[in-house]
Amino acid sequence: MSQAAPVPAPFVVAALYQFREVADPAALRDRLLELGRAHDLCGTLIVASEGLNGTVAGQREGITALRAFLHGEGFTRLEDKESTAAVRPFRRFKVRLKAEIVTLGVPVSPREQVGTYVGSAEWNALLDDPDTVVIDTRNRYEVRAGTFQGAVNPQIDSFREFPAWLDAHVDDLAGKRVAMFCTGGIRCEKSTSLLLQRGFTDVLHLRGGILRYLEDVPQEQTRWDGECFVFDGRVTVGHGLAQGGAVMCHSCGWPLDEHERQHPAYEEGVSCPHCAGQTTDAQKAAFRERQRQFDAGQI
Question: Which keywords are on file for this protein (predicted)?
């Protein structure tokens, strides 16, 4: 009797970051590329003089090798969250050099001045506190997939817009306790630093972000509504970091639920209710060709 084929091991997905001085970002990029290729990693890492950020996937031994390498490079205090994916969640492995590991666009000092960390177990109490303003620092399409009950949505399209939003709402927030959250915590390192720089004194943020909360807090105690958008092929995750049910529109990037995928404007790889009226027929034709190539395994 023939034996059944072994079930492939799930991909380990590591979302990690640390702010620390990097003397030679280009040299670090080259060493990371070499390691990633040697271990067949996929995903993207961003390297800058202020540190490292990214999400990477691979088999267990590859992720272990990456962590060991980073530790040897001085990244000994990584904020590191792990989940799994049944299929390869990224196509390639990339390491990019940038001016910031998460782009705020204004100078802040997250290594020297940052808000007070709040653990997952204490976060619900902040959501219930009428004297605390809880702010979602993510982009509007991320908030669309899910957010915390009662959180303020700044309605921004990129994190670079957050300082301008803050400038417009300084008076509304004056004298209040402000708590912030984001996907994995890194954006709040900068947003809380910005508020402290602007004179706010009672500033907090969710340690490890939404991903850590969904990992730590049982579903029966959750204050989270919906799913959490992630920047990989899973699109969204839920409690326990299990893969969610959303599908991304590859034209505009919005996470689409089942109802939106039944809409007449939805065409896989081409358009959705959010963007169908914003692209030309020529663009839609190009998107169809891209989808055809993808379905045929040509890209």
Answer: Oxidoreductase, tRNA processing
